[in-house]
Amino acid sequence: MKMLIAHAIATALLMTTQSAKAQNVVKPAAMEESEPLACNRLALTPEQRKRHFDELGPALRARKTAVRELPDGYEFQFPSDAKTFQLLTEWIDGERVCCPFFEIALRLEPQNGPFWMRLTGKNGVKEFIEVEGASWLQ
């Protein structure tokens, strides 16, 4: 009986260790390419959705000063003030939850230069932005 319990515990530990290791493994590019380009708005709570889409998005689009087209996405320029920085970081945090396929980078130019938020990703991300994020490109 003790051997059965020890075997069960060892098996459970092995499965737990293998599961933890599997979660830390980098996905092959082929797997990433097959993941859909779709936002999951339900990943945000109703309050977070309202804040993200009805408040932060419009506030940032109003502050946007330029757009640069990139081979795999777009880069958006913003003024370098504390309020814009706070809005950008909050928006990025929400966007990572509902649209995890984006690669998002925030670059702060030296000498109090502008902020640049870059949205890029795998094949199709640029076209996704052009359709779903058309208001950001105006």
General description of the model:
This protein has helices at 2-24, 29-34, 46-63, 82-98, 125-132, 134-137, and strands at 66-70, 73-78, 103-108, 115-120. By secondary structure, the chain is an alpha+beta fold. It has one domain. It has a four-stranded antiparallel β-sheet, covered by helices on one side. A hairpin with a 6-residue loop joins β3 (103-108) and β4 (115-120). α3 (46-63) crosses α4 (82-98). The chain is globular, with a radius of gyration of 21 Å. Mean pLDDT is 82; it is low at 1-32.
Strand content: 15-25%
Average the pLDDT over all residues and give the rounded result. 82
Helix fraction, binned, reads 55-70%
Low-confidence stretches: 1-32
Report on the biggest sheet.
Answer: 4 strands, antiparallel
In angstroms, what is the radius of gyration? 21 Å
Number of strands: 4
Distance between the termini: 71 Å
How does the overall form come out from the CA principal axes?
Answer: globular
Number of structural domains = 1
Elements, N to C (H/E): HHHEEHEEHH
Number of helices: 6
What class do helices, strands and sheet pairing give? alpha+beta
Strand order of the largest sheet: 1-2-4-3
Which features would summarize this protein structure in a list?
138 residues; alpha+beta; globular; disordered N terminus
How does the SSE layout of this entry go?
Blueprint (H helix, E strand, L loop, with lengths): L1 H23 L4 H6 L11 H18 L2 E5 L2 E6 L3 H17 L4 E6 L6 E6 L4 H8 L1 H4 L1
Antiparallel strand pairs: 1-2, 2-4, 3-4
Kindly summarize this structure in a few lines:
This protein is of the alpha+beta class and 138 residues long.
